[in-house]
Amino acid sequence: MAASDPGATTAVELTRVGKTRRHMSPRRYFREIGWRHLVGLVALAFALFPLAWVISSSINTVDTLTTARFIPKSTTFNNYAKLFEGCSWDAGLPPFKCANTTPMPIFLWNSVKIALIAATIQLALSALAAYSFARLRWRGRRIGLIAILLIQMFPQFLAFVALFLLLDTLGQTFGTATQVSLWVVAVPLAAITALVALVASRSDWQRSAKRSAYIAAGVGGAVLAWALIGQFADTVWPFVANYQVTIFPRISLGTHTGLVLVYLGGAIGVNTWLLKGFMDSIPTSLDEAAKVDGASEWDVFSKIIVPLARPILIVVFILTFVGLYNEYILASVLIRDVQQFTYATGLALFVESEYAAKWGQLSAAAVLGTMPILVIYWTLQDRIVGGLSGAVKG
Amino acid sequence: MRKHWKVLVGLVLVLGLVAAACGDDAATTTAAPTTTAAPTTTAAPTTTAAPTTTAAPTTTAAAAPLLVWADETRVPIIEAVAAEFQAATGVPVQVELVGFGDIRANMVQQAPLGEGADVFIGAHDWIGELVVNGVVEPIELGGRAAEFFNVALDAFSYDGKRYGLPYAIEAIGLYRNTDLVPDAPETFEDLLAICDELGDTVDQCLALPAGGDAYHHYPFLASTGGYIFAWDGTSYDPADVGLDTAGAIAGFEFFDGLVKDGYIDPAVDYGVMTNLFYNNQAAFMWTGPWALPDVKAAVAAGTLSGYATSPLPDILDNTATPFVGVQGFMVNAFSEQKALAQTFVLDYIATVDVMTQLYEVGLRAPAHIDAFNAVAADPDVQAFGESASAGNPMPNIPEMSSVWGALGDAVQAIYTQSADAATALATAAAAVREAIG
Amino acid sequence: MSFFRRHGPGWWIRFFGLALLDGIVIALIPTLWEQRATVALVCILVGAAGINYIFLSSRTIPIRWLVPGLFFLALMMLWPIVFTVYIALTNWSTGNFITKDQAIDRLTEGGAYLIETEDSPLAAMYLYRDPSIPTTRLDPIADLKLLVVTDLGEFFYGSPRLRTAPAPDEPELECCVSPRVDEEHAARLGAESLAELNAVDEDGDGIPETIGGHAKLRLLDIGTVSGVLDQLVLDVPGRGQARARTFSSAVLAEQRFVYDRARDALIDRLNDDALCPAQGASFVCAERRVDPGWREFQGFDNFTRIVGDERIRTPFLRIFVWNVIFAAAVVLLQLSLGMALALTLDDRRMKGRGLYRSLLLIPWAAPGFIVILVWRGLLNPSFGPVNNQLEARWLADLSRSTWPRWLVAVALVACAAVLIWMASGMLRRRRWFATFFSLVGAAVVAWFVYKILGPGFAVRNVGIPWVQPGDWFWSKVAVIVVTMWQGFPYFFLICTGALQAIPSEMKEAAKVDGASPFQVFWKVTFPLLMVGIAPLLIASFAFNFNAFVNIFLLTAGGPPVAGYAVPFGETDILISFVFNLAVESGRGGQYALAAAATFFIFFIVATISAISFRFTRRLEEIYGSL
Questions:
Q1: Which stretches of B62-162 are DSSP H helices?
Q2: Nearest to C543, CA basis, from A311, A160, A266, A344
Q3: If you write DSSP's letter for every residue of C563-592 in order, what string do you get?
Q4: Which chain A residues have a beta carbon less than 8 Å from that of C28?
Q5: Does A86 map to a domain?
Q6: Which of B196, B298, C443, C621 is an S-S bond match for B304, by CB 3.0 to 4.6 Å?
Q7: What's the angle, vertex CA C89, arms to CA C83 and CA C90, rounded to 5?
Q8: Does A169 share its domain with A305?
Q9: Which domain range does residue C584 map to?
Q10: Do C516 and C559 have their domain in common?
């Protein structure tokens, strides 16, 4: 890993991660690690200095983005306060309610929610596709992958009109959430899960699969029981009797569901190639060993490939998350109600025209908006390391 | 196939079950009209959701909500009017916040699909594109036209019909730092003399938003006789482009001189200009009334010592002619409730009260004569009003879209000193003529 | 029960999943049929059939893994491409936006082409209804009556018709005769005054509250008729038609145009019933186009226009070359910086790596447009900090100061000493490059010391014209640097992840064989990284080829290029150039042309990418996977 000085280290020192500093001379420290910190600091300075200006403009009393002075003449935290003006806690989701015209906390909530859901599903779709390209042999694999990449390269400038029409049409078919009473869902569910449990009991599936089937049957039975009790005791528990289950959410213009579905269009693309490349580097001997033990393709995928590909999966998740979080064009076309806005479209509200922009609040919003990304990255970034070194030895 | 016939039988059986279950709820899955979403407004709770009025019996024909698009500054006022309208007529009004720059494109694309607002605010130069696409409906003012300034009404006219109810008139003027310049300069020569006097004591004497911004530089073109499209009293003639007339070139040569002599710095864009002025580093600022709220805030914060406004100084002995922009309310031609929309606009918005409120949030001179007179005592209103009265409305024909880029490039050419005034304007005029075809 | 034994849980999941899907599709069919959405219906059926086949046939097992992703790809990516093709084949532009039926509707029923009657076109209007009929069963035609009161005191009262209904040849009203209407029509005006119809005016304002059993609608009742108000027309003999303007006023006017379906033309009643035939996506009256026109299929006209248009062809090569240079430079710089940082920070022993990584992500994670605008301010030639620092006023000030000068000089001399000592160490170890760089560093420091203590730095007016207004060279540099700054964390992140895939055994083996750190990198790490990342580079190139947002915000296309008939800038790329052209030509908003241009640009990018893919295949063959 580290470019080290041959002959100047001992095996003992190399294995004591994190503690070797105490045993190194300052000269060696600088040569091995110190220069890395230096480079890192210079890179940080290069990367962050414009952001320092954003922070400066966010605490500036004067509303401006192009200031020559780094430290403003007079400072105020008013811009941050105005973002939260009129907001109070609320029951339900989101857990707050805002009454001002640019409710930044709601925008952040919406964006994080949409980006998390869409990135997770995108990752799943992409991983499935990558496995197929990496491990399964079929004709036209390479052509298929290149074709997918080429499709993603198409300039999507009129895409927003097309997708607007698509969601408009979808909205006319799925415009209201499909809700059914609990009965309608409980009976078939119980019947199917009972059937599945029956099948499981008489088959030779693996024990974990049988266990899942029995648990599913148990859940189905419980839901049925709940519906039954509700029906017969509706004076005591009216809410159960009248409980409506949403089996299909509302998909139309202006809904988050619609937006998430549109984002899923970008699931297989460059990320798939990246995952495929990583999966290619996982030795097939592991697969073969598992198959000899009777594993199916799905088992290989879920129990071997996915855990080993964890670093790249996390990287792809973060990349996707950031991309969706900051996505502006589709969100601005498909969502019109301000309460449903995402972060990027919310920011645009501050800059309606170049002449009437609220730079101070915009900068404050930009600073706050970067936080969720940093938090998510911070929590996930130490799982990027790891990978193969342990597995290959086995 | 043989292997799978059992599968198919099973599928069909389960299909029947599932389809039956879903079929029951066909009522809930059928097409929902796209406007049933509960009206969500963005301001104080007093104006949310449609209450059922006590008087009128509500029926299935009860009014679909009237949809209004407004930008952030004006949404609160329109919501108050909406509440009044709702109380008087029982029809709910849904006010949606849409960025000013997005309203035009949204209307053009979405109105024919039935998704556009019934009433929307906009600028007068959008009319050309909107009329030509059949998206906007004429508003018949009748006798009430006398309540508004003619220039505002003319700005919203296209082919002899009026398409908007104006509420604000704007034109650029001259801001000055009263600490450095106590009196307004009458002519440009006076202004330059003041600048020479101030010398190095100020970072930038005349702060003008440089860059390819044809809007702010129009006075240099028009004051001396240039024009964009010839106006014959009722309409613009796109075949007659006046960018390269002698008058236009004379004005631009004057502008070129200003750049050469260093009075105007090409590095000063809109953001830099406001920053300099708000921090006492510029003596003059060349822009419009939209900056007033920020200027007043800068004075309040103490970074700017004091300001005053005046009309633009005379250019080469001609009264300065800025672009006049008019904003107003328009009605969607594809709306299913045009009469209702016009009722809302003509009976509830076109009142002195609302016009004055719109002035108070935007600080642009009201287009309504009575409202204007009520606030005319304000020196800023007087200054910008005087500037506007000498100005020309921006041509509202769709061919104007070819002009902004070409004229902007001509201005930029002067700033980079890559062409002289005559060549730059000749290129621009040729480009416009060729683009229009 | 061998049936159960034969099928594992996967089979059952597939079975129920397909059943659910088919059930949903079947449940949708009646709804779609009602709405006549034939295209959607066909697509859904074909798609469902395809999915069923894929999951049931044993030949398509690998494709099953792709189905969910492909489904969304088809819906959200392929459909817009198909739509773009469709648009490119039409004449969609300003003035030709709506469908022909909509245009005809606007022309024959819209307010823009109403000819108002000459005297007093505006009138007050009141609606009356029979209060005994509940509003849920109100027939707007049979149960509503209109009273129109002109400025001249005329009263017209009668039953309205829907505007879509044909106008009667001889309209009749219930009331009232007016001296201003000519004799020919007077006979059909009904009663002499409203009193004859049992009108009751309680408050004496001249407008009766009830007329013969019909009660006047109050403002609060507007909701009951708002849906039909626009459609009501009262034919007034001799005066035209009264149409609702607001709830309480009407306009007396006639429609200028009538559509003749047989001849596909408008009849212009203002000009003696002249014919305005449909020509080329609009009606033409006396050689002049009547707006609005409509969109219609135009075939490949837009494509030929793009290829044949002088204004596009002339600067094309120049813009294309810059576009390629821009995209390639950005990708290479981003990759270099990202990879270098990933390698540098890839040491387990380094503390705070997580912090570095998180913070280094910020240029890419922060909202693009605000950071670009900040950069524009930073790069301002006269007022921006970048130029201010380059002018190094502070350096001039330093060299003229007293004791700070000496302090800094002493510190610098110490640095020089350290560098020389390091150089000697490197020399002993025969590290030539390291020695060279250390000596150069020491020389630079020495020169600094000399300048500070001796002649001093003069204030130089660097004033590099990055942006605003910009310069043909520096603007390009600015655009590349800013885009590089924004995107390098992406490659940093990817390289960090990809580095984990390189087993340390290979590197250890190389080291054991005596390779220097640089050789380990160049011969082992780099090729393996490249194999994995190469497609990413190509995709990134394609993305940056069309990334005009940064350029637009930073330079708006850059300083204009002089001497061309069509306006474009130094930093304009193909897509911004063509789109500007489309938006600014003619009457603007030429989306069909822009759509056609999109294809050409895609073709160019796809060709470059396809060629690059062949190259990466060669790479894969050489280095393969492990």
A1: 75-89, 100-110, 127-132, 150-155
A2: A266
A3: T-SS--BTT--HHHHHHHHHHHSTTS--HH
A4: 173
A5: no
A6: B298
A7: 95
A8: yes
A9: 300-366+487-617
A10: yes
- Rounded Cα–Cα distance for residues A324 and B155 (Å): 42
Q: The domain containing residue A184 runs over which residues?
A: 178-245
Say yes or no for a CB contact (<8 Å) between C598 and A21: no
List the pLDDT tens digit at each of the 394 positions of chain A. Answer: 344 444 444 444 444 444 444 566 777 777 777 788 888 889 999 999 888 888 888 888 777 777 667 777 778 888 888 888 888 887 666 777 887 778 888 999 999 999 999 999 999 999 999 999 988 888 888 888 888 888 888 887 777 788 888 888 777 777 676 667 777 777 888 888 888 888 888 777 777 778 888 888 888 888 888 777 777 766 666 666 666 767 667 777 888 988 999 999 888 888 898 888 888 878 888 888 988 887 788 888 888 888 888 888 988 898 899 999 998 888 888 888 888 899 998 888 888 766 777 888 888 999 999 889 988 888 887 777 654 433 333 2
Instruction: Using the 3D structure, point to which of A209, A225, A245 is the last residue of a domain.
Output: A245
Q: Please check whether residue B37 touches A, CB under 8 A.
A: yes
Asked which of C54, C88, C122 is the last residue of a domain, the reply is: C88
pLDDT of B29 reads: 33
The domain total for chain A is 3
Q: How far is B132 from chain C (nearest CA, A)?
A: 5
Q: Does residue C70 share a domain with residue C216?
A: no
pTM: 0.83
Under the banding of pLDDT at 50, 70 and 90, the label for residue B45 is very low
Percent of all residues in chain C with a pLDDT value above 70, rounded to a whole number: 95
Give the closest of B131, B275, B406 to C291, CB-based.
B131
Domain membership flag for residue A67: no
Nearest to A73 among B42, B71, B303 (CB): B303
3-state class percentages of chain A: helix first, strand second, coil last, to nearest 5 = 65, 5, 30
Q: With 0-12 CB in 10 A as exposed, 13-18 as middle and 19+ as buried, what is C42?
A: exposed
Residue C565 near residue C356, CB atoms below 8 Å: no
Q: Do B89 and C222 touch (CB under 8 A)?
A: yes
Q: How many CA atoms lie within 13 A of A229 on its CB side?
A: 10
C131 & C198 share domain: yes
> Is A171 in the same domain as A47?
no
Residue A237 falls within a domain, yes or no?
Answer: yes
What is chain C's percent helix, strand, coil content, to nearest 5? 60, 15, 30
DSSP count for chain B of H helices, then E strands: 17, 16
Across the range C139-151, mean pLDDT stands at 82
Q: Cα–Cα–Cα angle for A52, A58, A62, nearest 5°?
A: 120
CATH number where C328 lies: 1.10.3720.10
Q: Nearest 5°: phi and psi at C121?
A: -70, -25
pLDDT at A389: 38
Identify the pLDDT of residue C459.
63
**In this structure, are C504 and C355 located in the same domain?**
yes
Are A330 and A279 in a shared domain?
Answer: yes
Q: Which carries the bigger pLDDT value, residue C472 or residue B84?
A: B84
Q: Which of A220, A245, A270 is where one domain is finished?
A: A245
Predicted complex ipTM exceeds 0.95 = no
Q: Among residues 347-406 of chain B, which lie with CB inside 8 Å of chain C?
A: 347, 398-402, 404-406
Residue type, C314: T
Of C222, C239, C255, the last residue of a domain is C255
Q: In what order do the strands lie in the sheet with B307-310?
A: B204-207, B282-287, B173-177, B307-310
Count structural domains, chain C: 3
Cβ-Cβ contacts under 8 Å, A65 against chain B: 271
For residues A265 and A240, membership in a common domain is answered with no
Q: Are residues A273 and A149 in the same domain?
A: yes
Identify whether residues C354 and C492 lie together within a single domain.
yes
Does position B46 have pLDDT exceeding 70, yes or no?
no
**Does A169 lie in the same domain as A135?**
yes
Q: Which of C75, C358, C369 lies nearest to residue A378, judging by beta carbons?
A: C358
